[in-house]
Amino acid sequence: MQRKSAFSRRLPDLVTEELIAVLTKKGTSFEFKQLFDIIYERLKKRNATSGGEEMLRLRTYEKLQHLVSRGMVKKTGKKYKGLASLATALASSESFAAK
Q: Residue 2 falls within a domain, yes or no?
């Protein structure tokens, strides 16, 4: 008997989507606080800030560290900067959202 997972079809991750959008549009480096403030405002406009600000901050930091470990974001000291490979991640997440 096979069990079907409750999470078989996931929605696009809005936090990662916003991280990628901010880091690819700007050519500058961001400290985490500065980056989170921008992402938080963008998510508030999309009405996607459920769970509270602190929980969102933790999720954002986790997603950012995942992008760093995958080599899509460069961390220099306390500053983060999107690399060219980050643009391909944005394209793949947009194609996933269109399905």
A: no
